[in-house]
Amino acid sequence: MGANESLPGDGPVPEVHHYYSKFMRECPSGQLTLHEFKKLLGLQGLDPQGDVYIKRVFDIFDLNQDGFIDFLEFIAAINLVIRGKIDQKLKWYFKLYDADGNGCIDKKELLSIFTAIQAINGHSDMSAEEFTNMIFQKIDVNNDGELTLEEFISGVERDKALMELITKSFDLSNVLKVIQNGRRHSV
Description:
- The chain has ten helices and four strands; from the N terminus they run H-E-H-H-E-H-H-E-H-H-E-H-H-H.
- The chain has helices spanning 13-26, 34-40, 48-61, 71-83, 86-97, 107-121, 128-139, 149-158, 160-169, 173-181; strands at residues 31-32, 69-70, 104-106, 146-148.
- It has one domain: Orthogonal Bundle (Recoverin, domain 1), CATH 1.10.238.
- Strands 1-2 form a two-stranded antiparallel sheet. It has a two-stranded antiparallel sheet with strand order 3-4.
- It is globular.
- By secondary structure, the chain is mainly α.
- The N and C termini lie far apart (49 Å).
- Helix 3 crosses helix 6 and helix 6 crosses helix 7.
């Protein structure tokens, strides 16, 4: 058996174990609240827009909508971010942008989430307005001012530059790096 071959069922156990011990160390109750989630990621004291974004991310990770992220929800989220196929990620992004949950993204929703992301990630090459207008111009095929999930996914998958931009702007792996490395807690 070569060095890269693994036994059946050998899967990502060490990785999951790593996240489990980190999760249990940071959150002994096994139920992560929004406050603990922010603390875990070192994202306290954000401006209101940043807070809105983190709350959206938290709500999407909270699959059963009980107000807590439990370990299974946490692992599902991490798995999506690390190993998710591109269309799974695009569905996730769509949910993130669709703030009112009506199944469509309008310009206001996209603008507010992108402004929030800029507040967390720092500057970007374009303003939130430019970004929003460019996305709608490229992928709102019927020009109704709203993007359906189908329009969003097929539009982004068709346009390599847009795909790169969206992936880079909304990349959650920075969040994961923080979780993996842990924050140095200042005493």
